[in-house]
Design a protein that fits this description.
Oligomer: single chain
CATH topology of the largest domain: Alkaline Phosphatase, subunit A
CATH class of the largest domain: Alpha Beta
Number of strands: 13
Strand order of the largest sheet: 5-13-12-4-11-7-8
Shape: elongated
CATH superfamily of the largest domain: Alkaline Phosphatase, subunit A
CATH architecture of the largest domain: 3-Layer(aba) Sandwich
Distance between the termini: 76 Å
Number of helices: 22
Helix content: 40-55%
Number of domains: 2
Structural class: alpha/beta
Strand content: 5-15%
């Protein structure tokens, strides 16, 4: 009997670990594949499971595929994993949308995205890939793969994060123990491209509508003898420190502005990236901009102005092909659209970091003659505060506030960039002889990759400034979304 038990243990050990310690090597593969994400998670936003199950399956087939094909497959899985993480960082609702945005890479200033930190992280990925491939030179076998996969499955279920058998309110750790980024992408792609039941564009709740809650739908008739300016400011969020919020407010709302305008400062819920913000503010819609049609767009704000005889204009300092704005902006009623090629003169400078284009301040000043006319609806989507931003000199008063609030240099730079634009916007507004009605709103919170910087901003709301001329009886409703 003792001899039988000893032989059973030997056979079990051989099956589990193999002649080359297969299970230990597979655990090493699992560790090194996920190591870069674990290190990033110490200081950056990393929304992914602790372990990726995709590499377990690749580990089983890699010896069959060979080191070259297997290594390329590992790189592909890492890219998918990184895309899912970055899509959350940049506020994309779907990782598939983030991946599809790669078609615009040619329009970006790639050098602005590079830093010592990103270079070091790429180096770490390369080092981990070399280690993983070396560990998988010898096949790991079916039983070790099954054992490791079963262990991760059980751990995920015990944590309460295996959704097929657990409820969300029973989860013990914030993150899933294991998961498949590849499956996430596949499921989103199926819903986005192959599901006929998916509503590509849907109305947002009426309680979240800026136009309904603040009487903006009445503006075409109310301000027919003047103009209307709607500005969506890139990455304009609500800072948690009152001192910083007041500093930013003071760049736009000054005594000379208050002499001409009634000011309603409030906040609006947000979800998603910049295009989501545009659909929310201009159309009271949520969903895929690719589903926009003229029939859907007839209810958008620019279309409502156009129906009342207004001329409608859209301005953005980047290329019109970015997120297809050149094509869907006219479908929401913007009769005249202007992008970087239209806005930059031969001697005009370019501004911005990764998204270099026309300078927002220059565009704002160019709008003055247009807004000085009657029945002109002007929409401006800013550009220069898009991440990564261009370095800017931080004003002394803001630098002091940033030091007192322990705000990082990167976050303070961003706040300074927003403030600089608000100053130029204020100057442009004051230069218009007949004050237009003005709506200024953020698209989403700034997409900092570092957790500490992200936590300085409200992750659900963006600031709103509704400025109505004092010489018109047009005060907006005061009971909107709460002060920012």
């Amino acid at each position: 009997m003792a001899r039988f038990n000893n032989q059973f243990l030997k056979d079990y050990h051989l099956a589990l670990f193999g002649a080359n310690n297969s299970t230990l090597r597979l655990l090493g593969v699992l560790g090194f594949f996920n190591l870069p994400f674990w290190m990033m998670a110490h200081s950056h936003l990393v929304t992914r499971p602790v372990f990726s199950l995709d590499v377990v399956l690749v580990a089983f087939f890699l010896p069959i595929l060979g080191p070259l094909v297997g290594g390329l497959l590992l790189c592909f899985l890492w890219l998918i994993d990184v895309a899912v993480v970055l899509s959350a960082t940049y506020n994309f609702k779907l990782a598939t949308d983030f991946i599809l945005s790669a078609r615009f890479l040619g329009a970006l200033h790639i050098a602005s995205f590079l830093s010592w930190e990103t270079t070091g992280m790429v180096g770490l990925f390369c080092l981990c890939m070399v280690v993983v491939v070396r560990l998988l030179k010898t096949p790991v076998g079916f039983i070790p793969t099954l054992v490791v996969g079963a262990f991760l499955f059980v751990a995920d279920a015990a944590n309460g994060s295996f959704q097929m058998i657990s409820r969300a309110d029973t989860q013990h750790l914030a993150s899933n123990i294991s998961g498949s980024p590849l499956r996430v992408i596949a499921a989103q792609a199926k819903s986005q491209f192959f599901s006929h039941s998916l509503e590509k564009l849907a109305p947002i709740p009426e309680s979240q509508s800026l136009t309904i809650q603040n009487g903006i739908l009445s503006w075409p008739m109310l301000y027919r003898d003047r103009s209307v300016l709607v500005v969506i400011v890139e990455s304009f969020g609500i800072n948690k420190y009152p001192e910083i919020r007041e500093w930013m407010r003071s760049k736009l709302i000054t005594n000379d502005i208050q002499e001409k305008y009634l000011i309603l400062q409030t906040a609006s819920p947000f979800r998603g990236a910049t295009v989501d913000g545009e659909l929310r503010v201009l159309c009271d819609l949520s969903g895929q901009f690719g589903a926009m049609t003229t029939n859907v767009g007839k209810n958008c704000l620019p279309s409502q102005f156009a129906k009342n005889g207004w001329a409608t204009h859209g301005f953005h300092g980047f290329v019109g092909e970015m997120f297809d704005r050149r094509y869907w902006w006219p479908q929401i009623g913007l009769q005249h659209v202007h992008f970087v090629d239209d806005l930059l003169g031969p001697n005009d400078p370019r501004c911005g970091g990764g998204f270099r284009g026309a300078c927002d301040a220059l565009v704002a000043h160019k709008l003055v003659p247009l807004l000085s006319g009657r029945s002109q609806f002007v929409y401006l989507l800013t550009l220069n505060t898009h991440f990564p931003i261009e370095a800017i000199i931080i004003p002394q008063d803001l630098d002091t506030i940033c030091s007192q609030t322990h705000t990082s240099s990167e976050a303070c730079q961003h706040i300074a960039s927003i403030g600089a634009f608000l100053v130029e916007l204020r100057k442009s507004i004051l230069a218009i002889p007949t004050p237009p009605a003005v709506l200024v709103v953020g698209d989403h919170a700034p997409p900092f990759s570092k957790t500490r910087d992200r936590e300085m901003f409200d992750n659900d709301r963006v600031p709103v400034f509704i400025m109505t001329p004092t010489d018109v009886d047009s005060a907006p409703n005061s009971d909107s979304h709460g002060a920012s």
